[in-house]
Structure formats: structure tokens, C-alpha cells
Amino acid sequence: MKRIAIIAAAISLGLLTQSTSCRKTGTTECGDIACTMMFAMITVEVKDNMGRPVKLDEYYTLRDKTGEKLVMQALAADSGQYTVIDDSYINTLKNKSELFRFVGKKNGVEVINEPYEVEGDCCHVSRKSGKTSITLP
Q1: 64, 101 in Cβ contact below 8 A?
Q2: From 3.30.60, 3.40.1350, 2.60.40, 1.20.120, which CATH number describes the 36-136 domain?
Q3: What residues contact residue 135 under an 8 Å CB cut-off, 6+ apart?
Q4: Contact 71, 62 (CB under 8 A)
Q5: What confidence tens digit (pLDDT) does each residue in 39-73 have?
């Protein structure tokens, strides 16, 4: 009897884990996947060669595939933290990955043009490749 209870608990836990998972691979359909309430962001820290935060005059993300310009809110521009892309773009990236470029300008000059590969599951975006920190000369 104890053995049956353990097996039933293990099966229930497995089903619960499977049904609440954000990531569903091998399909473009998400069905009734339960997503967390977390709002995911891919961010980058921009600093100078002395380690001080850099406040960019202009920054945006370009979608390589279409040239679409995405203007994201800085996470904390005064501390050099910028958002490359966030979950507001998940419907476009659902169960696929794409290339983007984070562009930053200072005094009218482009000082950053950094590539990022971003992937999405049924719920959130995530960084597949790309820098977490950029140091400007």
C-alpha cells in the first residue's frame, strides 16, 4: 500500500511539473501551458574603461530579420543598465530564436552595435548569445 502511494505521488508530481512548465519543445503550439508571472528581460551593462556606468544619449534594438526598431526602456540608465529586449516581444519569438542588435549612441555617434541571439519559449524570452556587459573605450 505504501508503495502504491509513493508511485501515485511520483506520477502526480511528474504531471504537475509537466503541466506547469514554460518550455515546450518540438512544437509551435503552447496550448494550456501555465506561465510564471515573472517578466523576463535581456539586459546589458554599459561602462567605460574605468568601470563607470555610461549613460547613452540614444539606444534601441534592431530586429535583423526585418530592420524593425524596438525602443526599450532603460533598466537604469544612470547605472549603465539597458534592456535589449523583454517579454513584451514574446508573441513574435514564441518557440523560435532570432538575431537582434543592440545599438547605443553617445554625442550623436554610434558607439555600440552588438549582436544578440534571442529565443522564446511559450512564456518568456531568453538570451541565447550576446554580451551581458560592454566596455567602451
Answers
A1: yes
A2: 2.60.40
A3: 47, 48, 49
A4: no
A5: 999 999 999 999 999 999 999 999 999 999 999 88
- φ, ψ dihedrals at 32, nearest 5°: -105, 35
Spans of all domains in the chain:
36-136
pTM here is 0.76
Q: How is the chain classified by DSSP, letter by letter?
A: -HHHHHHHHHHHHHHHHHHT-S---S-S--TTPPPPS---EEEEEEEETTS-B---SEEEEEETTT--EE-PPPSBGGGTEEEEEEGGGHHHHTT-EEEEEEEEEETTEEEEEEEEEEEE-SS-EEEEE--SEEEE-
Q: Show the cell assigned to 111.
A: 558607439
